[in-house]
Amino acid sequence: MGTKRIPQATTKRLPLYYRFLRNYADAGVQRISSSELSEAMKIDAATIRRDFSHFGALGRKGYGYDVDSLLQFFRETLDQDEETNVALIGVGSLGNAFLKYNFQKIHNTKIVVAFDPKAPYDGEERNHIPIYPPDRLEEKILELGIEMVILTVPKRVAQELTDRLAQTGVKGILNFTPERLAVPDTIRIQSIDLSGELQTLIYLIKNDVKDSQMN
Fold it and tell me: Locate the CoA-binding domain: which residues (predicted)?
């Protein structure tokens, strides 16, 4: 993406664009307009054109967008041709779900190692993925060259583990704990508070009901 700063909202939509474009390419569609993408994705056409404009001239006026060219652009932008190895820390209910989901290898991302306090020192396999105790965290992350981690651990140990990860060269953490983690500038962090998202959804639904009762 070069040195140009891309808005965070645009960045979050990039994987969504890639997924829809891949579906169109698989269906044999050769070109598509922003209005057609808008209708399929339920995103305003002006937003799509603005998002794409951050990356230069991706389409032609009166023609729209070449699906294969656009797909290749987003594949390169999102590094889809390069497999990303991920470590999972915490193999509870949510962690187990990730281990099972891993087989799909969506977006060239693959969990190659996991860590859990109940695992034996020499490791054990689950869904063909080795699981080790946290004592071997630094050793295995360095050995496997892991740069991205999914964190699904209890809140009380989240920051301690994050501090340890910061010493290993990890570049990104997907945080599923409610803890607001402090990280150095060398690490990108995305936090997903499932309970918070659920509360927001409940609030929006209740306000939709209130609005409909007032109208």
Answer: 79-180
Residue spans per domain, the chain: 8-77, 84-196
Residue entry with tokens 């995305």: 190
pTM summary value: 0.64
Annotated ligand binding at 69? The verdict is: no
> Tokens for 20?
């829809």
Length of the chain: 215
What dihedral angle (degrees, nearest 10) is formed by the CA atoms of 192, 193, 194, 198? Answer: -120
* Residue 56 assigned to a binding site: no
Q: Which fold has domain 84-196?
A: Rossmann fold (3.40.50)
CB 160 within 8 A of CB 134: no
157 annotated ligand-binding residue: no
73-101, pLDDT tens digit by residue?
877 777 655 678 899 999 998 998 888 87
- Residues ≥6 apart with Cβ < 8 Å to 138: 164, 167, 168
29 marked ligand binding residue: no
CA atoms of 34 and 39, how far apart (whole Å)? 9
Q: Which residue has the higher pLDDT, 72 or 134?
A: 134
Contact 55, 73 (CB under 8 A): yes
Fold for domain 8-77?
A: Arc Repressor Mutant, subunit A (1.10.10)
